[in-house]
């Protein structure tokens, strides 16, 4: 397996892709998380709205509807679903079929943006939820699916609630989950932990005690690919959640820049600085990259004992260091922080990818009927066979067929039990905020700004 160009699966950073999960193939799945709308997209979309499709909608005469999808190697699951739907009674009842339009990953967002402002707009579109569709939603180009989901037994009970909510905007659903989940997980090296008689931390005090013992043994506590800022972001995402709960970032995601001034954000930044000053990431983390395999190698070779990373770390290690992945890779939840209000069951990361429906579709019935297939056991089995962990409520019984059932079940139960699943910050906010936010995060980690300066800078992002 080759290393990726960034993060992995349903949502990574620039150069990373929407499709890597436990045991899944990596080739062709390397471009997703931050391929989001540019700063001027809202103007473009609003201008193009009047020209979006004919009176019959984007699909033309209302018979065949077009579904734009990210064209990686995971698309075979969606291709099979289309073929199955087109032969089904649901297709006949809705008087419509689906045509899957595969777009190469590197081109997906730009081509979707162009198409949505033209008569050739898709009826159904693949996306990452949150900030990735905000401009379309604000331009009234997407159907609000909230009431449709609530009124349909298949859709209402078909998906894990935390995943449905994570892709929403303003508490309203504009998407149906259609790929696997990718929570951020605290991984640890079982052989290092066993050698030094350590147990996975459940509290921040335990984590600090582990750090002290590891440093005494001249082992770096955490691998960190600081050359790629999104790896640093994960620390702040979990710390803010554990200290202040998911409500803090929910306000920020909703457009309240003043929420960056919440005490939980400052405390999280101060905690990060304490970790850095204490050597928890070593002294050269800012020159280590995840993208080129540096951080995974440091972790697998025992030079660092733990690694906070998305669930795709399993497939990364399986490809690069298969013996380590199979024998010594351990995983656990991010610990609680004393005095914090966040639930230890809360999760951050990339919930999944979503199908959304164009408000101008010529056949809404066919589009909704097609989306319902994503809640089926047949669809979930196809995801499992592809190495993904489905977000459907019926998936638990299917995971024995996964490439690593133990890891698959851990992920699924982690998300199933999560009171909240916070979408990765750089995917949840608009692109014109995500880029400067990442810049400020990097400045905090490399010591170019203090925690208070970090908070002040973020409060200016609007």
Automatic annotation (TrEMBL):
It comes from the Bacteria. PANTHER family: ARABINOSE-BINDING PROTEIN-RELATED, BLR3389 PROTEIN. Residues 1-13 have a biased composition (Polar residues). SUPFAM superfamilies: Periplasmic binding protein-like II (SSF53850). Residues 1-27 are annotated as: Disordered. InterPro entries: Bact_solute-bd_prot1, SBP. This is Sugar-binding protein. The lineage of its organism: Bacteria, Bacillati, Actinomycetota, Actinomycetes, Kitasatosporales. Signal peptide: none annotated. Residues 14-26 have a biased composition (Gly residues).
